[in-house]
Each structure stands twice: as C-alpha cells, then as structure tokens.
Amino acid sequence: MDLFDNLALGFATALTWQNVGYALLGCLIGTFIGLLPGLGPISTVAMLLPITYSLPPAGALILLASIYYGAQYGGSTTAILLKLPGESSSAVTMIDGHEMARQGRAGVALATAAIGSFIAGSFGVLLLATVAEPLTQVAFLFGPAEYFSLMVLGLVGSIALSSDTIDKSLGLMVLGLLFSLVGTDVNSGEYRFTGNISDLYDGIELTALAMGVFGVAEIAVNLEQYNRERNRNATLAKVTQLIPGKEDIRRMAPAIARGTAIGSLLGALPGAGVTMASFAGYALEKKVSRHKGELGQGAIEGVAGPESANNAAAQTNFISLLTLGIPGSAIMALLLGAMIIQDIQPGPQVISNHPAVFWGLIASMWIGNLMLVVLNLPMVGIWVKMLRVPYRILFPVILVFCSVGAFTVRASVFDIYLLGAFGILGYVLIKLEVSPVPLLMGMVLGPMLENSFRRALMVSRGDLSIIYSRPLSLGLLIAAGLLIVISAYPSMVRKRKAALSEESA
C-alpha cells in the first residue's frame, strides 16, 4: 500500500462517529487542561490511563493523543490574555503575546497562535505519515540485540537532553528499571523483589506510578506554592479583531516556517519535547528575524515562532514511538503504556499488525488540529470563563478521580496506597527540582529492555558478545556512550575550573 492508500484507511478509521467523538473529547479536555496552570497533559493522560482499559485501541490512542496536542493550543490562550502560561511551552509565547494584548491586539495574537499551531501541526503530521513506513522497514532489520541497544539509546537520549544533571537522571532511570522488575518472572515463574507482599506478585501498576508522580505530586505542589484565586483575578485582556492584517501575515509567515522546521526536528529527538522546541523557536527569531529588535515589545514573530515550534514538535514526538517503539518524552511513555494495555506490541510491527490503529491515529491528528482551530478562536470567551472554576473544588475532584482510577485497574486497595506513595515521591522530586521523567521512562521501557536482552542471549546461547559484536548494535551503544559523554562534559568542565580556581587561590 502506498501513502495515499494508507491515509485513506486512516481517515476511514478516524472518521467513524466514535473516533470523531474521542478526538473532540480529547481536544476539549486538552484545551481546558492547557488553560489551567499546573495541570499539564502528562498528569492528565496519567489520570486517564485507567479509562483506556475499556476503550477500543484506536479510540484510546486518539483520545490520549488529542489531549496532548490540544493542551499546546490551550496554554497559549491564558498566556496571551492573562499573562499566565497554562503550559510550560507557552511561557515564551507570553512575553510578546501578552504585550500585544496590552496594545489592544489580543485577537490578532490569538489568531496568530492558532494559525501557526494549525500549519505547524499539519506539517508535523504530514512528516510523520511520510517517514513512518520507511522507518519501520529499517526497523524490521533489527534483531533482539539491536532492539536492546536501541532502547538503551532511547533511555540515554531522554536523559541526555533533560535539564537535570546526568547523575540524577541516571539514578532515577535505574530506579524506574528496578520498579519494572518487581513481580513474577515470566520465564521462571519466580517472585522478584516482592518482599512476600502478595499484591506485588503482578508487579507495580504503571497507572499508579504515573498518576502519583505526576498528578498527585503536581496538585500538592500547586496547593502549596500558588495563590490561584489571586492569579485568576488578573486583568483579562479584551479580544476584539481576530483577523490579522496583511502586514501581520507578511511578518508571521516566515516565523511560522522557521518555527515549524525547528519544532519538527526537535520533536523527533528523544528528550527534547515541546518546551525545548518553543524556547528554540523564540531564540531563532531573536537571531534571524528582520524585526528581532521588537521582540519582547509585542512582536508578532514572538508568538508565531514559538507556537509553531511547540505544535510541530507535539506531532513529530510520535515518530520514534510509532515506528521504533521508543518513547521520546514522558507523554510518549504514557502512550506506549496505553498501547501495552491494549495488547499492542510497540515497535515496527504496529504498522503491519494494526494498520487501522496506526493510520487512524495519524489521520485523527489532522482532524484534531482542525477541531482545535474552531474551538480556540470562536470560543475564547467560554474558555476564559472556565478559568473561574475554584481550585478548592477542582483539586479534590482530581484526587478522587486518581484514587478511583488506581483502584479500578486491578480492583486493589493496595494500588491506592501505591498512588499515595508515588505521590509523596513525586512531591519530593519536585521540591528537589528533579524531573521524574527518567523514572517513568525506566518503568515503561524496563520490561521491553529485559525481554530483548533475554532473547538476544537465547539466540547466542548465553554469549554476551552478541550485544557488541553485531555492527548495528555496537553503533547504537557507541552513540549512547557519546551522548553520556556530551551530557556530562559541561559539568566536568565546570568542576575542573572550580578546582583550578581553588588551587590558585
């Protein structure tokens, strides 16, 4: 099947009334979550993972994916109107977006964000659809050893590009791998790391960990650090003209193109994500824009560039997940978990074994992006009014939802205890300014890493050299090692300079 036949299959799947409904629901939830500071798509998808048990595979993935990219749209609305970024990726948009709003151009800023997001998102989906099948064909050449090395590279790449120090990220990744080993060994039937606790014989439930470290922990920090009632009483900028003028279009067009390009590239890299893409898009405008001197003073490029970058990245984030089975970010790790819940083995076989799910998800992204333009421009007033929902009502409801979700997966009260324990762990990590993403990546990829390693040893009859004797596997391991060195080098240089300065003193 060629690309057009595959897309025809995808749209036939995505345009069923059930899947259109899931896409619309996800876009609505994503937009709302994007509006609310502190409640990002990661915690939301983590909380909704239990629901995916009862949904069809295509519907579950469409729902979760639309929440993810829908949040990128919603975050820009409060950033522009209230100077309050709902999403971290919208923090840069806030600089020039809110300044435009103060100048009476809030409508133009919102329209620019929506247009840039739609164009960039559509291009990202097109890129995903174009490269998906060629990449899967390459991936079919991989054996167990290559898959093991690829997963090592994915884990290392995700922490190499994170903002935390390499030792903290590696430590959390190893902890996540250890959590993934808890339970019954599938080969021997022996219990591992259970402490004779019968509730752990089936392992640690992924949903309890994800909802704890992201959902519960975020709520605790938000309640502690922020006075939301005061923030939401901030002055709301008036929205008048939504249609950009000819000069606005002339200035925004190249910024959208540049943001789309850099966002598409960074989104495909493990660990980069939408926030890095947004900041990179703004930094690029400050260097190459003809109006770079106006940035920070209400320049339209300061909205078009970052918004295009983060939405392009939101789509290309799916490339490594759907083609190789390697999540490039926390949200992709959760989506991988949803695939496993649906009994879909992640990797290149998804496109051949589940073509309707694969191409249906891609087609739904176009539909979702179109829905989001409609939802975010004419309904701006409604979305802003929804910000008035008191957090004293919202947060307890979320906590109850998390508890019910944790319980219903395995009908186990023990999972609620795990939810609380992981919530405390996530809270501690946030207070220590350490990202819990490597922990989640280790937990999700741990079983796949172990299975690939064991299969490789079975093929080689216990000879470890199969991991490094095969050229492709060795190349992937070398790439992982280089990433570690590159990540650790700046810290090593700083420590060396500090030591030399102490000696000279």
Q: How many structural domains?
A: 1
| C-alpha geometry | globular
- Provide a count of the helices: 23
Helix-strand sequence: HHHHHHHHEEHHHHHHHHHHHHHHH
Strand order across the biggest sheet?
Answer: 1-2
Radius of gyration: 23 Å
Structure write-up:
The structure is a single chain. Strand 1 and strand 2 form a beta hairpin. 74% of the residues lie in helices and 1% in strands. The protein has 23 helices and 2 strands. The chain has helices at residues 3-14, 17-35, 41-48, 57-81, 91-102, 106-139, 144-160, 166-181, 206-225, 228-231, 246-267, 273-288, 301-316, 318-324, 330-341, 349-353, 355-376, 380-386, 391-410, 413-431, 437-460, 466-469, 471-504, and strands spanning 183-184, 191-192. The termini are far apart. It has a two-stranded antiparallel sheet. The chain is an all-alpha fold. The chain has one domain. The longest helix has 34 residues, at 106-139. The protein is globular and about 70 Å long. The model is unreliable at 228-235 (pLDDT under 50). Helix 11 (246-267) packs across helix 12.
Give the helix/strand layout.
Layout: H1 3-14, H2 17-35, H3 41-48, H4 57-81, H5 91-102, H6 106-139, H7 144-160, H8 166-181, E1 183-184, E2 191-192, H9 206-225, H10 228-231, H11 246-267, H12 273-288, H13 301-316, H14 318-324, H15 330-341, H16 349-353, H17 355-376, H18 380-386, H19 391-410, H20 413-431, H21 437-460, H22 466-469, H23 471-504
Antiparallel strand pairs: 1-2
